[in-house]
Design a protein that fits this description.
The chain is built from 13 helices and 18 strands. The protein is an alpha+beta fold. It folds into three domains: 34 residues, no CATH class; 92 residues, Arc Repressor Mutant, subunit A (Orthogonal Bundle); 192 residues, Beta Barrel (At1g16640 B3 domain), CATH 2.40.330.
């Protein structure tokens, strides 16, 4: 029987790449992870925290008293963040079981209590007291809110690809296939400038810390010269990075300014730099607010000492008045009305009346958060507007 076919070992080493472990992991790791995760989620005997799984039956009992003590400890350090083991030591949680098991059990109890927020990057568990997180981290700022409008994305792809490289918008997906870089330059739009945020577009998200489950991740901004460090937050679901408002103001940045972002030397650090230029007076589009609360764009000379995108730079002499308009508007004015009104204002600044789509995008975002795709879709489909070529548009009435 030794020559029987069933006694012959199966040769798994062949030319078929599907039998190669490295090939399978490289090409199917995401699919395998999703399938495995779904299977684990169905098992009621398992629990998960920060991407790690553990048998529920082996958990250590953590009571309300332990959690109240943890809250008090975090309050003493301005909310955190703190590592789990440091918290356990502070509250003197004693257990006869394995330290790792105690830590996992405590993590799960904190996760299930709404007072606490897990804010560590992937591979590190850090806890923060939710009540002491910045308000604009807990809730998306008004100026970043956007109600999606359905449109045919394929019709605008070619024009979007012509936008200059320092435009990144968290509401768009055109940069999903951009080559991975360790340094990106971003041109600010007004909503991000006003709220002290950066867009977490696909390209930028590769630079910033992420997490397995945590909706918010705490990290540290470092100025290029290393003189200053300050806290930053990645808000994953709403796709923005918070913590730059004071830095923008201190360095004289305006909407349209260029901000360089790169990975830091240490994990959890992001280097941020504003691109300087010599002090000069430049003719810039300037927002003026009339007594009727209407917005007017005018070309005025402004003192500036930072580099900027010429199409997107907009001076804001009265930020508080403009901010109040956002509060009063409540998004009652249809977006298409805002686009048309903005175009008419910009057309006054150009004798030929030809307006670049990137200028329209930056100017529309002065009064309404909006990605460039829907703006371009409106421009190429509105009967009042003609496409001049490239990214330029004009009103048809100018043709007569």
């Amino acid at each position: 029987m030794e020559n029987h076919i069933l006694s012959t070992p199966i040769d798994l080493i062949s030319d078929d790449p599907n039998f190669d472990k490295d090939f399978v992991l490289k090409n199917f790791s995401e699919d395998l992870a999703i399938t495995l995760e779904k299977s684990l989620e169905k098992n009621k005997g398992l629990v998960r925290i920060a991407g790690a799984w553990f048998p529920r039956a082996l958990l250590v009992d953590i009571n309300a008293g332990h959690l109240n003590l943890a809250e008090a400890v975090l309050e003493e350090v301005n909310g955190g963040p703190m590592k789990t083991r440091d918290l356990i030591e502070q509250i003197e949680l004693k257990s006869d079981t394995n330290e790792n098991l105690t830590e996992f059990s405590f993590n799960l109890a904190l996760q299930d209590d709404k007072r606490f927020d897990e804010v560590g990057p992937a591979g590190e568990v850090l806890w923060f007291l939710k009540a002491l997180e910045p308000q604009d981290v807990q809730e998306q700022p008004l100026m970043l809110e956007y109600s999606p409008i359905d449109y045919d994305h394929k019709k605008v792809g070619a024009l979007l690809s012509q936008f200059e490289g320092d435009v990144f918008d968290e509401l768009e997906t055109w940069d999903e296939k951009v080559e991975l870089k360790d340094e990106i330059i971003v041109s600010l739009i007004y909503p991000h400038w006003q709220t002290g945020t950066l867009p977490l577009s696909k390209s930028l998200s590769r630079l910033f810390p992420t997490a397995y489950e945590a909706p918010r991740v705490r990290f540290t901004f470092v100025e290029k010269d290393g003189k200053s460090k300050f806290n930053g937050w990645v808000v994953r679901e709403q796709k923005y990075v918070y913590g730059l408002r004071a830095w923008y103001q201190e360095n004289g940045l305006i909407p349209g300014s260029l901000v360089k972002v790169k990975t830091g030397k240490k994990p959890g650090e992001i280097i941020v730099e504003h691109i300087k230029s010599r002090q000069t007076k430049e003719w810039l589009k300037t927002v003026l607010i009339g007594s009727d609360k209407g917005i007017v764009f005018a070309m005025l000379k402004q003192s500036i000492n930072v580099a900027f995108n010429e199409r997107m730079a907009i001076a804001i002499p009265d930020p508080q008045a403009l901010q109040q308009l956002w509060t009063d508007d409540k998004k009652q004015v249809p977006l298409e009305n805002i686009i048309l009104r903005t175009m008419r204002e910009l057309a006054k600044l150009n004798p030929q009346g030809h307006i670049h789509a990137q200028e329209i995008y930056a100017a529309v975002n002065i009064t309404r958060r909006c990605p460039p795709g829907i703006i371009i879709y409106f421009l190429i489909n509105n009967h009042e507007i003609a496409h001049s070529g490239d990214l330029y548009f004009h009103f048809k009435e100018r043709e007569n």
